[in-house]
TrEMBL record:
<dbReference type="Pfam" id="PF01266">
    <property type="entry name" value="DAO"/>
</dbReference>
<dbReference type="GO" id="GO:0005737">
    <property type="term" value="C:cytoplasm"/>
</dbReference>
<dbReference type="GO" id="GO:0008718">
    <property type="term" value="F:D-amino-acid dehydrogenase activity"/>
</dbReference>
<dbReference type="GO" id="GO:0055130">
    <property type="term" value="P:D-alanine catabolic process"/>
</dbReference>
<feature type="binding site">
    <location>
        <begin position="3"/>
        <end position="17"/>
    </location>
    <ligand>
        <name>FAD</name>
    </ligand>
</feature>
<keyword id="KW-0274">FAD</keyword>
<dbReference type="InterPro" id="IPR023080">
    <property type="entry name" value="DadA"/>
</dbReference>
<comment type="similarity">
    <text>Belongs to the DadA oxidoreductase family.</text>
</comment>
<dbReference type="InterPro" id="IPR006076">
    <property type="entry name" value="FAD-dep_OxRdtase"/>
</dbReference>
<dbReference type="InterPro" id="IPR036188">
    <property type="entry name" value="FAD/NAD-bd_sf"/>
</dbReference>
<dbReference type="GO" id="GO:0005886">
    <property type="term" value="C:plasma membrane"/>
</dbReference>
<keyword id="KW-0560">Oxidoreductase</keyword>
<comment type="function">
    <text>Oxidative deamination of D-amino acids.</text>
</comment>
<protein>
    <recommendedName>
        <fullName>D-amino acid dehydrogenase</fullName>
        <ecNumber>1.4.99.-</ecNumber>
    </recommendedName>
</protein>
<feature type="domain" description="FAD dependent oxidoreductase">
    <location>
        <begin position="2"/>
        <end position="398"/>
    </location>
</feature>
<keyword id="KW-0285">Flavoprotein</keyword>
Length: 417
């Protein structure tokens, strides 16, 4: 079959790879001049398989109220007149209960753990150059309450067999020696030995080249205008270069997916939650993180590449606003400096922003639609890099009519009724 993949971020390119591996003719369309030029460009860098959790959690509404009055809050809201913003917030609030949290986290961990297996197999086969490290992830706690709150996550981790260990301060330092300078700020941590790090942009570009070697055609600088419907099927995709036809169409357009689907009567509950990152040159190896350190207080992930640190955080609800406010930079810089005061050249850091395609329940949308040849692999939020390989393999199996390696129940758009 000929399959059109719309979008060449990490989710689109991994999907293209697995579809090509199953013998399909694959064409990837993207408006950018190369792969991974938008949300996959400068994200946090951590492959946080074990830490995959929905933002909609019990207690978040109360925390959100407190964050409104904090200078370095992990959540910022710019209230606007866009109904989608208010609908997203209300839907997210509806998921902030124990039952929904458990269901949503179990779905996310299912995809993430599968993705860990997939990316390990990919790397063993292809040895892609993306500055990857397999040294785990350390979530650091600054308060005893944070330690207590981790208990509900541990229950789900145990259910899915995700390796994890609660650490005291000395054990945290053993994992990340540079934390010895700030040990008085910490009370403990949660370590995920199977989590990894790596530059998503480098990975996606390298995998795109491997796709091309397999015969996948990438049509860059191509603006996707609309899906062309013919009854209960999609006949093709209208672009600024003409009509592209195919047997199957897969949408992997992140935050922009709803614009394409709404005219077809499919209202995707995806909102562009804005995130920021700093890319920092390392000063000395011994003063920098060795893998990913997740600062639970500020919700900032601090990740080590070879000679760079990538720090990312902040969830901002501001629609498609690409501004780079100094205050957001200061929040991320504050987290990095408080844990790794001599880690990198902060004054020279590159500041970036991107739109995370968030669903209210935190779970990506992977599966079919009411149109028999239209498929979705989108809405991964902050976890597109983490879930990319697994969701790509899963959707390729579903499109091919094969039995997937994991249960796809609860992942499709149909879960929204």
């Amino acid at each position: 079959m000929k399959v059109l993949v719309l979008g060449s971020g990490v989710v689109g390119v991994t999907s293209a790879w697995y579809l090509a591996q199953q013998g399909h003719e694959v064409v990837v369309l993207d408006r950018q001049p190369d792969a991974a030029e938008e949300t996959s460009f400068a994200n946090a860098g951590q492959l946080s398989f074990g830490m995959s959790s929905p933002w909609a959690a019990p207690g978040i509404p109360v925390k959100a109220m407190k964050w409104m009055f904090q200078a370095h809050a992990p959540l910022k809201v710019r209230p606007g007149t866009n109904p989608a913003q208010w609908k997203f917030m209300l839907s997210m609030l509806a998921n902030c209960n124990e039952k929904s949290y458990s269901i949503n986290k179990s779905r996310m961990v299912r995809v993430s753990e599968y993705s860990r297996q997939c990316i390990n197999a990919l790397q063993d086969e292809l040895n892609l150059p993306f500055e990857g490290r397999r040294k785990g992830l350390l979530q650091v706690f600054r308060t005893e309450k944070q330690v207590a709150d981790a208990a509900k996550d541990i229950k789900v981790l145990q259910e899915f067999g995700v390796k994890h260990t609660m650490l005291n301060v000395a054990e945290c330092i053993a994992r990340e020696p540079a934390l010895a300078r700030v040990q008085d700020k910490l009370v403990g941590g949660l370590h995920f030995p199977d989590d990894q790090t790596g530059d998503c942009n480098l990975f996606t570009k390298a995998l795109a080249r491997k796709c091309q070697e397999k015969g996948v055609v990438f049509k860059f600088n191509t603006e996707i205008k609309a899906l062309v419907r013919d009854g209960d099927e999609i006949r093709g995709v209208q672009t600024d270069h003409g009509l592209e036809t195919a047997d199957q169409v897969l949408v992997c357009m992140g935050s922009y997916s709803p614009f394409l689907l709404t005219p077809l009567g499919i209202s995707l509950p995806i909102y562009p939650v804005k995130g920021y990152s700093l890319t920092i040159e390392v000063n000395k190896d011994e003063d920098a993180p060795q893998s990913t350190v997740m600062d639970e207080t500020y919700k900032v992930a601090i990740t080590r590449f070879e000679n760079r640190i990538r720090a990312a955080g902040t969830a901002e609800l501001a629609d498609f606003n690409k501004d780079l406010p100094a205050a957001r930079r200061e929040t991320i810089a504050h987290s990095v400096s408080s844990l790794f005061p001599k880690g990198g050249k902060m004054e020279e850091a590159e500041f970036w922003t991107g739109f995370r395609p968030m669903t209210p329940d935190g779970t990506p949308i992977i599966g079919g639609t009411r149109y028999k040849n239209l498929w979705l692999n989108t809405g991964h939020g902050t976890l597109g890099w983490t879930m990319g390989a697994g969701s790509g393999a899963l959707i390729a199996d579903l499109i091919s009519g094969k039995q997937p390696d994991i249960d796809s129940d609860g992942l499709a758009f149909s879960r929204y009724g």
